[in-house]
Amino acid sequence: MNVPSPTGPTTSAPSGPLEKTHLRLGFVALSDAAPLIAAKLLEFGHAHGLTLELSRQPSWAAVRDKLLSGDLDAAHSLYGLVYGVQLGLGGPQTEMAVLMVLNRNGQAITLSNRLADAFAERGSLPAALATLGRKPVFAQTFPTGTHAMWLDYWLASQGVDPLRDIESVVIPPPQMVAALAADKLDGFCVGEPWNEMAEANGVGRTIAYTSEVWPDHPEKVLACRRDFVDAHPNTARALVRTMLEACRWLDGAGHRDEIARWLAQPDYIGIDEALIAARLGEPIAASAPRGLPMRFFDHGAVNFPRAIEGAWFLTQFERWGMIDPRGDYAALAARVNQTGLYREAAAQVGVAVPDDAMEQAFIDGKVWGDRTDVGRFASSFPIRR
User: Fold this and answer.
1) For residue 300, which of 44, 98, 278, 341 sits 20 to 30 Å off, Cα-Cα?
2) What are the Cα distances from residue 348, in Å, to 9, 15, 48, 338?
3) What is the pairing mode between strands 187-191 and 137-140?
4) Which residue segment(s) compose the domain that 80 sits in?
5) In whole angstroms, what is the distance from residue 246 CA to residue 43 CA?
6) Into how many domains does the chain fold?
7) Predicted confidence (pLDDT) at residue 13 exceeds the cutoff of 70
8) pLDDT band at 44 (very low <50, low <70, confident <90, very high)
9) Residue 282: what pLDDT?
10) Closest Cα partner for 68 from 94, 40, 107, 48?
11) Same structural domain for residues 245 and 332?
């Protein structure tokens, strides 16, 4: 198999000598790790003075631990994981940095066949769950991660209290389908290709897409410790430039199919490329008619790490009782999300930076944006802690 050739700009004007040139990047076996895989296979880093080494991790907990220990310089990470570490939730508190958004959409909620049938027959999720005769078990991938937030938000929008009506468990993404097949779960929320695999294996059905909860939501980010940015600012900018080149390449004609073949290799995801490609292409396949396609670049609209988007995760931590109400969500998000560094890096590779302003309606009609009363948002939900 030949490595695809890069297209588009591959030169930039570095802001100074790089403090570090060999970087070890972590990822989890998911389709949205594609920017890291493309960056390595196409060696986009070379034009920016970087050599990349990829390290697949078995779970998000492993990503967290290796970022904190310094075994990884940066990683493909759940957005909410970064904020959980920043606050010291479930582990040591460490100052963290979000360098850029790697993708939007591309996650889903899958139910067991039995529960999916009951949902279709009864017409409501609470009625469907009642047919189980026990407390249902749902899996997500990390307590403060995106999948936990999407799952809880969706359940609440269906009239199910995720703190009282279900049991929530953490399972690494590659183990989700096997757990569902073994009848250990009634449903899960995870990134692709694992929802597609559950359907292909006949053990579950995708019932909702996370883009239905928040259309074009931010998902995985490029994350590192804040002290890495402080000690290696030129390297951090070079890494953002490299990943923007990779995201731009993924939008090229035929490149989604190309990357699906590489993601299928044992070093990356290691499953049938058809399962990966089914929900990676543009537009999304007929198997996911309600979901919005996974987005990696879209002329830079995907990648800007708006602080207001990060602050949303803090409101959900409050909503579900992970933190007490506090008045500094906007300031905390502005400290974590490296918007200034991102702007500089984007300018060096000719990538437009979208406006800071945003306003987004959610599945339950709630609206979040830069004009939202952040202090009142978490307490405005009928289902919460």
Assistant:
1) 278
2) 10, 9, 10, 16
3) parallel
4) 22-103+219-355
5) 9
6) 2
7) no
8) very high
9) 60
10) 94
11) yes
Q: With the C-alpha atoms ordered 301, 306, 309, 313, is the resulting torsion angle positive or negative?
A: positive
Q: Which two tokens stand for residue 223?
A: 């994350």
This model's pTM is above 0.85: yes
Question: Is 148 in the same domain as 196?
Answer: yes
Q: Tokens at residue 147, please? A: 């999948």
DSSP H stretches of helix in the chain: 34-41, 60-69, 79-87, 113-122, 125-130, 146-157, 176-181, 194-200, 210-213, 226-231, 233-250, 255-263, 273-278, 307-319, 329-336, 339-348, 374-377
- For residues 203 and 242, membership in a common domain is answered with no
What number is the average pLDDT over the span 139-151? 98
CB pairs under 8 A, 24+ apart, for 13-18? 13/348, 14/48, 14/49, 14/234, 14/237, 14/238, 14/348, 15/233, 15/234, 15/237, 15/344, 15/348, 16/234, 17/234, 18/49, 18/50, 18/232, 18/234, 18/235, 18/238
Helix, strand or coil, per DSSP, at residue 156: helix
Answer yes or no: is 88 within a domain. yes
CATH of the domain at 90: 3.40.190.10
